[in-house]
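so the lab meeting is tmrw and i was supposed to have these ready like two days ago... anyway. pasting both below. for each one the top line is the aa sequence and the line under it is the structure tokens. i havent really looked at them closely yet so no promises
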Amino acid sequence: MTRRGREPSASGLPKLSASPTLPSEDPGLSRILAWPAYTVDAWQRSILFLDVLRQRGNAFLQHAEAKDPHVLSFDCDVMMDGREMARPVNYWLARVRNPAGHEPDPAKRPFMIVDPRAGHGPGIGGFKADSEIGVAMQAGHPCYFVGFRPEPEPGQTIEDILRALIAFVREVARRHPEAQGLPCSIGNCQAGWAVMMAAAIAPESFGPIMVAGSPLSYWAGQEHHAPMRYLGGLLGGSWMSAMAGDLGGGKFDGAHLVSNFEALNPANTLWSKQFNLWANVDQEADRYLSFERWWGGHVMLNAGEMQFIVDQLFVGNRLATSELTLSDGTAVDLRAIRSPIVIFCSRGDDITPPAQALSWVSDLYADVRDMRAHGQTVVYAVHDSIGHLGIFVSAQVARKEHREFASNMDLIDILPPGLYEAALRPKTDEPGEEFVDGDYVLRFESRVVADLAAHGGTSEEDERRFAAVRRVSEANLALYRQFAQPLIRASLLPAQADWLRQLHPSRMSYAAFSDRNPFMAWIAQLAEQIHTSRLPVSDDNPGRQAERQLSSLMERVLDGVRDARDTASEKLFQAVYGSVVLQAILGIEKGGAPPRNRPGMSHEHRVLVERAIADLRARIPAGGEAEAIIRALIHVGMADRTTDERSFAVLRRIREQYGVKAMPLAQFKAMVRDQLFMLLLDQEAALAAIPAILSRQPGAAPRALELIKAVSRATGTSTAEAQRRLERVIGLFKGATALPAPKGKA
């Protein structure tokens, strides 16, 4: 009998097998003999783990010393430098180079991806091939990227950044005069509210907008979930942000924001991330290092920028109800945006839960009729489980949600005003799915504003509590500025501010394992030797099983600590700021006027709406073949309150039939909106006018009827009401052929 247990390795050194057992021995002895192999494997993994941390530390230092660091996996060329603007900013606009052989279609709208400046450096939107940039380029769109440098320009403000974003999107549009539609702007996380604010003050410059994981209604939420919204109140407001800016010598360290994010999930921060690397160091090293290169790329903000964000947005919550006014008097009203807005969020996101991403709609609008009166289209999609970073970096999300949104942005652009939920389903053999590219069918289902309450919101009690936080924050900030700020600014030297930044735990955790630490020199040498004589064990080794059990226990313990902390924080917040005594002292009366008024329709806007209604009513009998087709299709579609990309594929044929140049997308979009409003205004009159409209163009009715039937075949009719409407429309079109041609027509 031959004993197994050592085999020659590629390097000629003996190699322990994954299961050093004797075929004739009992399982108990095999398990005992497996432990020495596990001990060697665990020791080797520990050295390799430390070596990965060493590489991470070196990459962190190299990234910090780079002139314009980013983590884009695509080559790009800078088109505009924000430092050259009248009000300099540290942002830049770059054109992303397409891979060889994949030139963009000049007729397709360009995409502009704006990365968040929330503590990390730029590049997360193009971090992988399967990313927002990647899927847009695969769909044939020219792509641009907005990044930023680690250091802000002296004196730059959030308002300066908004003006820069407007200048960037106008430059992108200027470079693509043949494109059908204005650029699509994608804002990730904090870049989302920046893009929305920019579009609110320059709505004519923006095409469709997609905000991914972006907080817009900062007080909203659900009890026992996403406790980060309580942090401002528990800290006494924004005075600590002001102090952090003063201790930073007029700059706010983005590492503070990173630390706040990490504190949300201590199990992952303190244990799981490191354990997963150690347990799978042979496979995970490259992925871990590439992500950590971005996660550790801390950037700076001017203290004034951070103070604006905290005071006006996160604590003040002035964006969601149009209370925000810029220094030049410009009102930032999200209702002014005329482009479709796509909101992508997730129930698994603790940083931007669905309530904070969606509730601004219910903050601004009483119902869908109000949205239509303002001409606003909002599409939202709620993922079931993906975390905050997964919204941007997950290849699975990029290949599904982002790819479908990018491929169907023209469809989204022509959706009539209203509220829609986007749903994806795998492609099947249903009628019309041969028109669909990719593996999924994107469907838009009409919703009402009240439906958003299912994802959370703001109760009357929460409104009073957070209003109390806002007033306490204003008082504490005034006290700090009056008494403490002058002392700190007078006593702090620039060198001390830099010293404090370098000693931040988020930076020290990287630098401590770099080659600056002389202890790490022998780690690199050992790791090199281990790579040539690696002795891994199999996953069923008892040691591997035990470490997984220990890891699971640690995660449960840390999750329990987090849950206890979050519960205590929520109860403390509610007890302190829900106190009727404190609220009364702050002038917040229970049962009185709401602490935050919802904006109503202004008199000027009401007059404009009334004029538009009168104009639409007068134009109901007007139009031609295209108007009749669109009116009929909308009437049928209103029965199901849904539409999908199959119908748009056929609508695209309508545009092609009339010539794309003769009917640009903007004109087609205006036509769709007008026909919807006519049907909502007077459905019977709008339908009754169809035969007369068609009779003005001899031969139009049969041709138009074939297009109507083509759309019906492509999408089917899912309800009896939709079928009834379709039959009525067919009757109207057939009736038009029996009408005598107008005089003077052949």
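ok protien two:
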Amino acid sequence: MGLIQKLPPSVVNQIAAGEVVERPASVVKEMMENAIDAGARRVEVAVERGGKDLIRIADDGAGMSPEDLPLAFLPHATSKLQSAEDLHRVRTLGFRGEALAAIAEISKVRCQTRRADAEEGSEIVIEGGVAGPIRPCGCPVGTVMEVRNLFYNTPVRRAFLKSDSTEAGHVAETFARIALAQPQVHLTFRSSGKIVHDLPAVTGVRERIAAFFGRELAESLLWVEGRLDQTSLWGYVGHPSQSRSTTKGQYLFLTGRYVRDRSLSHALNEAYRGLLMVGRNPVAFLNLEIPPEEVDVNVHPTKIEVRFRDPQRVYSHLLSTLRQTFLASDLHSRLQPVAPEKETEPPAAPTPAPAAPPPNRPDAPFALDARPVDRQEIAGWFEPSKKPAAPPTIPDDVGRVRPPEWAENLPGRFDFAPTRTFDEFASEPASDQPMTPTAPEAAPAAVASPTIPELVPHAKAIQVHDSYLIVETNEGMMVIDQHALHERIIYEELRKRTAEGRVEAQGLLVPEPVHMAADEAAILLEHADLLATLGLEVEGFGGDTVLIRGVPAMLRDVRPERLVRDLAEHLATRPLPPTRDGLAAELLHMVACKAAVKAGQKLTPEEIDALLARRELAHDAHHCPHGRPTALIFTKSELEKQFGRI
């Protein structure tokens, strides 16, 4: 007798269950996707003990006939595929025909179902893969699936399940993913008899986001939309102030299916480079719609991993769309006013608001039924008078910010160049972008650039704690972090000059030797060519000594020895980006940080004015290269609220 033998069907199904059914949340995912594929408009999910004892999912979908009911629990039986060619254009959430057979093999399943054209429903009970007879039953149109005692016949797998609360948390996360991907479906989730979520059908996803993550996050999201040929991207991304310490706040959906893809995650992080601090991750709820033949979802039984036919094109589309969105958005951080205290006891009965007095009544402001005077009128006293005037003649150089003559007094100065327009910046390929669109229409259409909060002309800024600048704006006031703003300005100029290949190096009259650890010296010399493009010229001097021959001319106030040591330590101890452009950007961040004015450094009035003048010349002036905000805005209305004027 040979050694190779065919495994029994029950063993095959248990092996498949090891891939498809990892925990109760896997069962919830598979059966909710089946309900949505059946056209359900309402799905109810209920679990007991995190799904270990009971998982019940009821839907109002198309249902099944008595003939189809036993076939649904056979391995590789499905209504969603007819031939092998259908695998190349999958349009449904499920298609493999493995899940129900695997679930029925390791649990006790009861299914009740009825089609709209049937007078009665059908019921089947399966225990450990052994199916009972089909029996008629009374039930509404749709399907009700009950899964009890998951892994009851595989005790080893059941022993590896976590606590009830942990498993319930995984089920809740699975429910949230599907709810965010399918906002048009009414979804209900009960755990241990208590309603956790009752989500009516909505046209947009913002209400679902607010239900799961809070109203504050939902209201701070930025709308994203872009189209490239037949590929559409839409959804919301978080304001940089709403970052997270993990990637759990990132939800990527492919045609209604939650997916994980390393290239898409990398594009998302690249788009936020310079807007988030190290160790922080962006929040995103993005939907990608792509023709089915352009993506392969048959990678893993869980169907979470996907492969794109042209991943470079998808990567570039996501990255360019997000960058265009950020360029057109106001990313300045704003101070949040203190929320007013709620009344401890509501009034006995609501009183209608009094009608506004007629405008021709001279005594209206003093009438008993008049409304309080709007405090915004008081704020308007400080507005400059607006008198009609003839349209002025617009000079050719309108919009260019010219620095004052004393701008050279600011530490780390450099030549001023006229700012680029939004269209020029949008058409310029990003230096740290590893993949770019191949078609000319890859970049979305340009949109109007957001208005940077304008400073009041001739308003004098004051420095507090030798670290922050307070200056009046047209809409209120702004508190600026002098170090963060100067760091952004220096970084932008360095990045621009590096891209143009014109970073001037100031040769040292006497080359300066620097002794350092052997590993730091080795990695520094390994990247000597890259450092040369940044204006830093180093070479080996034997052993663990490095010779500095030149430094960037615009950073002549920085100590060369300190700069080289910090760069070597950074290269030797930090994980480095995989691309040369990414590494160059990271080194520019560090160089700009070292060259910027420091917190606690006293600035002269001329230096303060020069710093504020340069602010208008920097792109992304709302954040420093490391992601910290450069300024906080406090609007006039918020000031009025704080002082109780409104």
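from a quick look at the 2nd one: The first helix runs from residue 9 to 20. The two ends are 91 Å apart (CA to CA). will dig more after coffe
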